[in-house]
Amino acid sequence: MAKFSWKGRNRAGGTQEGVLVADNREAVIHLLRRQQIIVTAVTERGREIALPKFGGSVSSKEVALFTRQFSVMIDAGLPLVQCLEILGTQQKNRKFQRGLFQVRQDVESGMTLADSMRKHPKIFNELFCNMVAAGEAGGILDTIFQRLATYIEKRVKLQSAVRGAMIYPVAVVTIAIGVVTLILWKVIPTFATLFEGLGAALPMPTRITITASRFLGRFMPVIVLGLVALGFFLVRYHKTQRGKRHIDGLLLKVPIFGTLFRKIAVARFCRTLSTLLASGVPILEGLEITAKTAGNSIVSDAIMTTRKSIEEGKTVAEPLEKTKVFPSMVVQMIAVGEQTGAMDNMLSKIADFYEDEVDEAVANIMSLLEPVMIVFLGVVIGGIVISMYMPMFDLISKIG
Predict the structure, then answer these.
(1) Do 10 and 65 share a domain, yes or no?
(2) Which of 148, 310, 380, 388 falls 20 to 30 Å from 323 in CA-CA distance?
(3) How many domains are contained in the chain?
């Protein structure tokens, strides 16, 4: 058993500290909790100078799990402070744990839950905080957290589908480029020296391959620096407003993948706005938040244009149709939702439909890309190998 130094606050708000002997840190916290002491720090004696291990960024899965657990605890009638204390203690991500403890302290000092969460924008985004504020105002915080958990889980699933569609072709193309570069850089020069020594007449494919190998060997540092500079320029350009719009516009027009990106944008827009409207957030504020979380500047601009038109007294469907960003089916269903007064339910149904469309599109892309990538690798690498063996075939025939 080890000795632990602890600090905490009692029910009266006074600060206390001391030393306890226990098996581990969790046992210390459990013992102090039974004494009605809120623990703020626990340090094992002899390890005070050890560097703390802080977690990296907080993932969406961690936020979704926290939100789901929080909704269950609130529904069970536990006070907010106790919920935050329990969930903070259970967190393995140190950054998330520190954030939850700070939120708990702010709530104890009299701040609202939404305002205390706004102090941690890297953990709780604007959508999350606005929905919590709506839940506090309406007294339906447990329902709001259930909706938030569902929303985050569906968004994580959508992001996983996108990564699944992109990882395979990117990985195959990267491996192919690496293999071809290695062959041209290290293997082909050996064959070129052999052919020069034999004095054989080289066919056109072989001469092209050897020329590419010599060019790569001579200008390899320049090529690497050029690629790094190009990547740096594209990143910097994408951070500008003009560059982001240009690149995002091109992404929506890319063959095969452009349709997928558009479906993802529609699904994200409908899911976000549906969740906000169902939670009591006003339509104008909901559109502004949705635009910030759209993930594509073209879609974001279309949403903000729609918001401006609504301020002028127009419906949602009419300006959405004029943007030419959203499919006509989506606009028509939104128009029906406006007429029936069930906009949030209609948006939720559209989001469900397009999320299924994304899953199907990803499956189709994967089934299409597999044979294409195999043929691509076979043609490129096989072409290099054949070009190197063609002079040998000529030499063997002459010897025969």
Answers:
(1) no
(2) 148
(3) 3
